[in-house]
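Bumping my old thread because nobody answered last time. Still need a sequence for this structure:
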């Protein structure tokens, strides 16, 4: 039973209790002392291989050069420098009084000067540093650096048209193709200003992007505040006993059942990493877009795994039906998933901060999805990313980890211990690298807890989907 104090006011969870499986020992039978390790051995081998493959590749990732680090810092800090300066996006009469406008301008100028200094050692050696140096020099009202122009106009650098935009007022705007993100928008504004004396910067700057970013950032701050409150309430309710972990939807009752579920989990890995990757490789060889190729592999693996779970059981409903719970409860499960998402935000931030400290000793985290967002993605690519990360991944991973595998673990582990191990293994097979393992593990742990509280993976699917979608949205706003 779940008490009325549940975050979604669930009064009775008994209908969600899965029917007994044929052959499952009853209460008057003695404990099952037999062991059936084969499923677990196979799963352990797959986990070991995947953890080694994903993390060794991340650790061996070559350290960024000094030029790359400088360019990355400039790209990361350039947009916030303008975001904090209303004089760049608002008419003069709406950007504050003269004193405030002067203060904004001075702060931005100082920030741009610091960023420009980071590029100086690399401005005639690195193409990206050279382009950014030209942009910052124009913002700081410095003369065009002829050495940088010569470097970008040489055979060492592609797209010499970018340098000509700054050296020749007759040059076309085609050079913008070399840049991306906010620096590209800034270079376009500079191009127009240089050739049109009547142009007003406040009208040229991308106001929609500034507005959207402010909206997202304010939403993020509100989410963090709400998350702190909900986390405190969650801990208090568990400590008082008002909320309890009643078990997963398919907790294994025997060691044989546990081994079979472990084998089913291994099947998910085979679908995802072997067959899905093989399909993606075939599509890439056929010159299919890289984003679509990865998407096709994931959708094949997810649909294949769901099809296996939908297979009818002689003892009652399919495994998929038992994992999802009754449809009339899905609305309540969605509310529980949202509660869990917000309550977990402070933990994700805390552990991500710890991971950031580790980047002094190990490579910084990286993920193919965020890399694609920072590379001028098309609308089709963005849509595929959101569908694969915001829909497919949560469904497949939650059914596998919090459904099948967590139930198998509960044969020999308590609820909290099973959730911790489940979260750590979930995080360890992701490609970001060791720096983000703790942050991702907190997501897996929260999903494990809410699954065992409501005896359904639906809350975990909702939480996971919202989490991934928010991460992609932040990445899209700040990187794309």
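Sorry it took so long. Here it is:
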């Amino acid at each position: 039973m779940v008490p009325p104090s549940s975050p979604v006011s669930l009064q009775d969870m008994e209908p969600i209790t899965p029917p007994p499986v044929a052959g499952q020992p009853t209460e008057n039978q003695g404990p099952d002392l037999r062991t059936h390790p084969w499923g677990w051995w196979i799963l352990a081998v797959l986990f070991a291989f995947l953890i080694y493959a994903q993390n060794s590749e991340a650790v061996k990732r070559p350290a960024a050069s000094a030029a790359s680090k400088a360019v990355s810092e400039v790209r990361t800090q350039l947009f916030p420098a303008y975001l904090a300066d209303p004089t760049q996006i608002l008419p003069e009469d709406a950007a504050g009084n003269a004193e405030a406008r002067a203060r904004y301008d001075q702060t931005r100028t100082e920030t741009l000067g610091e960023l420009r200094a980071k590029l100086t050692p690399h401005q005639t050696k690195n193409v990206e540093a050279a382009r950014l140096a030209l942009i910052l020099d124009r913002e700081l009202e410095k003369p065009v650096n002829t050495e940088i122009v010569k470097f970008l106009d040489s055979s060492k650098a592609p797209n010499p048209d970018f340098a000509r935009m700054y050296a020749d007022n007759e040059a076309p705007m085609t050079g913008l193709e070399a840049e991306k993100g906010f620096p590209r928008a800034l270079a376009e504004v500079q191009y127009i200003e240089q050739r049109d004396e009547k142009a007003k910067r406040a009208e040229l700057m991308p106001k929609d992007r500034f507005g959207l970013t402010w909206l997202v950032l304010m939403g993020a701050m509100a989410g963090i505040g709400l998350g702190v409150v909900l986390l405190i309430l969650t801990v208090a309710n568990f400590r008082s006993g008002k909320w309890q972990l009643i078990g997963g939807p398919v907790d294994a009752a025997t060691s044989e059942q546990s081994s079979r579920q472990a084998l089913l989990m291994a099947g998910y890995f085979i679908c995802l990493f072997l067959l899905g990757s093989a399909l993606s490789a075939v599509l890439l060889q056929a010159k299919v877009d890289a984003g679509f190729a990865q998407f096709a592999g994931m959708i094949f693996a997810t649909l294949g795994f769901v099809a296996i779970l939908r297979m009818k059981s002689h003892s009652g409903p399919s495994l998929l039906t038992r994992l999802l719970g009754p449809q009339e409860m899905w609305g309540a499960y969605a509310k529980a998933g949202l509660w869990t998402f917000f309550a977990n935000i402070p933990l994700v931030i805390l552990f991500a901060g710890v991971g950031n400290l580790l980047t002094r000793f190990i490579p910084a985290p990286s993920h193919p999805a965020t890399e694609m967002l920072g590379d001028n993605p098309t609308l089709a690519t963005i849509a595929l990313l959101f569908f694969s990360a915001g829909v497919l991944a949560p469904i497949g991973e939650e059914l596998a980890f919090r459904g099948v595998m967590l139930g198998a673990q509960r044969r020999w582990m308590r609820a909290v211990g099973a959730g911790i191990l489940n979260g750590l293994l979930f995080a360890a097979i992701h490609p970001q690298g060791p720096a983000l393992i703790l942050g991702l593990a907190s997501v897996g742990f929260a999903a494990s807890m809410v699954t065992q509280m409501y005896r359904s993976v639906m809350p975990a699917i909702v939480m996971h989907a919202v989490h991934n979608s928010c991460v992609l949205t932040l990445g899209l706003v700040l990187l794309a």
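Residues 207-240 form the longest helix (34 residues). Let me know if any region looks off to you.
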